[in-house]
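<goal> How does this chain fold?
<sample>
Here is the protein in question

***
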Amino acid sequence: MRKDKEPYKILVIEDNLGDFILVSDFLEETILAPEVVHAPDFKQAVEKLTTTKEQENYSAVFLDLSLPDKSGEGLIIDILQLAKKTPVIVLTGYTDASFATKSLSLGASDYLLKDELTATTLYKSLIYNIERFKTLTRLKESELRYSDLFHLSPQPMWVLAMEDYRFLDVNEAAINHFGYSKEEFMSMTLYDITQEKYFGIFECRMADQESMDSDFSSLVQLQVKSGKWIDAEINCNLLLFNGIKAEVVLANDVTERLTHLNIIQEQNRRLKDIAFEQSHVVRAPLSRMMGLINLIKTTQISPKEELIQLLDYIERSAYEIDDIIREIVRKTENLKQEGDL
């Protein structure tokens, strides 16, 4: 049989020397060079686990439920508290089988019946629970990072239940921005703060949860506690929240941005009007002036009264151009005063 070459360091908390030797022998059958540490009672187990360096180096802890100086639920709880970074596997006899099952609910990774113990079952339990513990640790770290990102985000965020869009959690930024207390949020659904014309968006997602995109964004209008409606860009992502199908939503208030865009659009419209006047309205009197000047240059005009009349037409066109230019300047100045240019 090929032996596992990984450098396992295992703490066995067992008062029965024969059982300890049996566990050690089984481990040596499947692992090339296991480092097996023995603690015959609770006091020595505490000593082995209270040194930070030692605790971090243990691959796993095998725990007998009945020690001379401690046993039962209190023993489980204390060892789990000491071995926070290590999977704890309970070793028990048949008489303790019911409590061994309960130990799983207390946080133990697994339990093995001593009378059914073999080298193979011991090794499989060891490997499985080491990997499972690593996975659970990564998951907890990921959940903690998510919690930090959620609650410390400067943007309003909340978690909604997919079945009815009730609020399951909100961050501090949402409470501050929208004005509702957390208790008020928890008593409401998203429908309570959304314009009715947007209800169809959420109802479609509720009805088609299986095929809908995990990422979703939309522009909606939401109501703050003061009664004011704001424009908000919501970005939604699916997640499982405490066993409930849910969405985490980031609500970005874009009211000012949209207002600014509307101002820019109005500015562009008015600039187009000015451009039209420059390119069309000015052209009419200018064309008349150029035509009259060309007529004077190329034609022998007499009597003098006709020449004076032509010059009068030119003068009127010049005044008309002057009025147009003044109107363009006035409109441009108005835009400047309004802060649009």
